[in-house]
Design goal:
five-stranded mixed barrel; 5 domains; Tex N-terminal region-like; alpha/beta; 650 residues; Nucleotidyltransferase, domain 5
């Protein structure tokens, strides 16, 4: 409050004693007579050579500066002009000088914006972020403008100009000067800050949605996997993991020694009965893919078995980050970083959630201008997404890593490590209740976490469901009320099926012909009556029934499995009109990138996503989704493929 205010033209004029003259101008006294004489008469009392006010022109210039500042600092004026700026202003961009352009943007990344102008109401978030980045890189000059003529009514409604006043023109000029010199730049900053805020919020939400879909991709269960991290100079790293993701063996093959490399692959595939290969999508991935596809083809000819072995190209983003991390060193202390990275690639196919939680979410590569947004906000949002996904899918407490366990509600890193340590010292957990013996996992934490921690093959079958221990008594009561009663040989799912059939029959028999359409109400009443007898609410009853019908349920299993490929598709093989199956790798504002098995992911523009208008691509597709696409255009020179989903049954 004691900081000295910045010196402005208006503050200098006030020091010269011109504030009263500014008040007169704002009051606009109405007088008839010679204009120049009247103005001279009003200015005379304010002329002071010592203060630097020698003429009436200087007096009015200083007073006008004060008037301009008074007007632009008026909250009502600012509110009106602000509203107009957000409704009617336009954002423009111009490229810097051609000499600088060749240096700053040699590849023409921002060519679309070299001469750009668009209403701020129509600007889409990804363009705002692209323009901001181009401006930071000194490729473009960006501004937001609203002509004075359009903003003038917003000012004059609060400061009407009286035509009969000798100060009418001076007031009008001061308004225009204040707008152009002070108010417009201020409003431009406000608009750009708000546009950036909205764009960043949108980008963070897009990233969060993509991350959620990536984490919840279905696991590939019961398969041994050969992981391959392709490379030229240092060779391709090979690692075999068993059905549970446990490391078995590793090797290296070199692409410049093709015969020896194929022998190495053959040996591993045969010795460990491998049917699935996971390949990273980095350097040398296409050359490695060609070698693997040729080998699969040869094996199929030799054995006569078609489709026995398949491969998947796995997004290896973040694998190198994980392999060099402390967590990876603790998990595999005797292996080098490249081997740890290859294990990560293989495990990403087996259980994407369990493996990807070990990596900083920002490193998984499904964002939109992720480095241009507020990093603190981004990290907080992505952290919430990871926790949500882990709790949604549930965690098998006897096989989960500490990296996965720490994301369960109520469990922190220390408790997660304690769970793993207890498991190593005492063997697998036999029941959820045993978790309370873990150091640091008290009653409150147990209540919060128990519903998300599953124990498969334990002494209590309900421990392998999402049913919370607090609801076990209610569940047992429910089972006695269902058909079969105390008979333990009848599975809960069979009892529920019989009960559903029974209430449908009763509902059908109890209805007269005139109200036959209202049968659902009778069934609903029967379920509500059952919930009342058990002593729980209807939502809790529904949750219990779902878990009893599908014990050990993993919500991710309902999603389509990854596409196993058997041969290579090159960009040169693509032809316009081809129908292909692909996996969505990333979703952005303007469309989705789809992996169709060639070197470059193809783009399905938002206008090609459906036979209707699509505003939000996320309403149509999601990361990890398997889609049918048609090839629209192939640009071999630029390595681009345009795809369409229109008029194709998904």
């Amino acid at each position: 409050p004691y900081r000295q205010k910045r010196k402005t033209r208006a503050s200098v004029a006030r020091e010269k004693g011109l504030a009263p003259l500014a008040d007169i101008i704002l009051q606009q006294p109405e007088q008839v007579g010679d204009l120049e004489a009247l103005l001279e008469q009003y200015a005379q009392p304010f002329l002071d050579a010592e203060k630097g006010v020698d003429t009436s022109l200087e007096a009015y210039a200083g007073a006008s500066d004060i008037v301009a500042e008074v007007i632009v600092e008026d909250a009502n004026v600012r509110g009106s002009v602000r509203a107009s700026f957000f409704k009617r202003s336009a954002l423009g961009a111009k490229a810097v000088d051609p000499e600088k352009l060749a240096e700053k943007d040699p590849n023409g990344v921002y060519q679309l914006y070299y001469d750009f102008n668009e209403s701020v109401t129509k600007l889409v978030p990804h363009r705002v972020l692209a323009l901001n980045r181009a401006e930071r890189e000194e490729v473009l000059r960006v501004n937001v403008a609203l002509p004075y003529e359009q903003a003038q009514p917003d000012i004059t409604q609060h400061y009407p100009v009286k035509a009969t006043s000798p100060f009418a023109q001076i007031l009008s000029d001061a308004m225009e000067d204040g707008y152009k010199r002070l108010l417009a730049p201020s409003m431009e900053r406000e608009v750009r800050v708000e546009l950036t805020r909205q764009a960043e919020e949108h980008a963070i939400n897009i990233f969060a949605t993509n991350l959620r879909n990536l984490l919840l991709q279905p696991p590939l269960r019961g398969k041994r996997v050969l992981g391959i991290d392709p490379g030229f100079r240092t060779g391709c790293k090979l690692t075999v993991v068993d059905e549970t993701g446990k490391y078995i063996v590793s090797d290296t093959m070199y692409l410049h020694q093709p015969e020896k490399a194929v022998q190495t692959l053959r040996k591993l595939l045969a010795q460990y009965n491998i049917t699935v290969i996971a390949m990273g999508n980095g350097t040398a991935s296409r050359e490695t893919e060609q070698m693997v596809a040729n080998l699969i083809s040869d094996l199929e000819k030799e054995t006569g078995e078609q489709g026995k072995i398949g491969y998947v190209i796995v997004n290896e983003a973040g694998a190198s980050v994980y392999s060099a991390s402390e967590a990876a060193r603790q998990e595999f202390p005797t292996l080098d970083a490249t081997q740890r990275g290859t294990i990560s690639i293989a495990r990403r196919l087996q259980d994407p959630l369990a493996e990807l939680v070990k990596i900083d979410p920002k490193a998984v590569g499904v964002g939109l201008y992720q480095h241009d947004v507020d990093q603190k906000e981004l990290a907080a949002m992505l952290g919430r997404v990871v926790v949500s996904c882990v709790n949604f899918a549930g965690v098998e407490v006897n096989s989960a890593s500490a990296a996965l366990l720490k994301h369960v509600s109520g469990i922190n890193t220390r408790v997660a490590n304690a769970i793993v340590k207890y498991r190593e010292e005492h063997g697998p957990f036999k029941a959820r209740e045993e978790l309370q013996k873990v150091s640091g996992l008290g009653p409150a934490t147990f209540v919060q976490a128990a519903g998300f921690l599953k124990v498969a093959g334990g002494i209590e079958p309900l421990d392998n469901t999402f049913i919370h221990p607090e609801s076990y008594n209610a569940t047992r009561t429910l089972l006695t009320l269902l058909p079969g009663g105390e008979e333990k040989h009848i599975r809960p799912s069979e009892r529920i099926t019989k009960f559903r059939q029974l209430i449908k029959l009763q509902s059908s028999l109890g209805r007269s012909s005139r109200d036959r359409s209202g049968g659902a109400g009778g069934e609903q009443a029967a379920w509500a009556d059952l919930a009342k007898k058990v002593g729980i609410g209807l939502p809790t009853l529904n949750d219990i029934l779902e878990n009893l019908e599908k014990p050990g349920l993993d919500p991710r299993d309902a999603l389509p499995a990854p596409i196993l490929r058997h041969d290579v598709l090159k960009m040169e093989d693509l032809q316009t009109g081809m129908i292909l199956q692909g996996t969505v790798r990333n979703v952005v504002d303007f469309g989705a990138f789809v992996d169709i098995g060639v070197k470059q992911d193809g783009l399905v523009h938002v206008s090609e996503m459906a036979d209707r208008f699509v505003k939000d691509p996320l309403s149509v597709v999601a990361v990890g989704q398997v889609v049918q696409v048609r090839v629209l255009k192939v640009d071999l020179q630029r390595g681009r493929v345009q795809l369409s989903m229109r008029s194709i049954q998904q």
